[in-house]
Write a structure and sequence with these properties.
By secondary structure, the protein is an alpha+beta fold. The protein contains five helices and six strands, in the order ααααβββββαβ. Strands 1-6-2-3-4-5 form a six-stranded antiparallel β-sheet, covered by helices on one side.
Amino acid sequence: MRATRTARGRPARLALCLAAIALLAGCASGPRPAIESNADGATHQRAAQIALSMQGTPYRYGANGPDAFDCSGLVQYAYGRAGAQVPRTTDAQYDAVNRRYLHQLEPGDLVFFRIGGIGVSHVGIYIGDDEFVHAPKTGSNVHVSSLDHEYWRSRVVRAGSLTR
């Protein structure tokens, strides 16, 4: 007997393939491993405090402190000074966090934004009370902004914790 394809068999195989793809995608979108397994809430608090202490430091693309920062450089610097290793780029930091809802954020968690185009393009460190510290753009300095501000609220694409 010769195996033949029938219109009847195709939907079943297609459904099976789609189910397998969905299963694999589900595995890939699970929680990410911790960056620094020994980091605790105190590490996050220290990182937030260190970032806050850098207020007034100028923004410079590609800079990671202490005399100038870009957004991801500020995150890497603050966490490094707090004792945790963190990826350098916004994209790598975005990939490293364990997701949280905005109402679950704790000081030291990261908030990611899409400023223009597609994908993530900006990151800040949550400090509590719906505020975050960040190095926003050329011509400005490290400062605190509010997630309640329409500009930032409409551009949030992810929030999460690096280690908890």
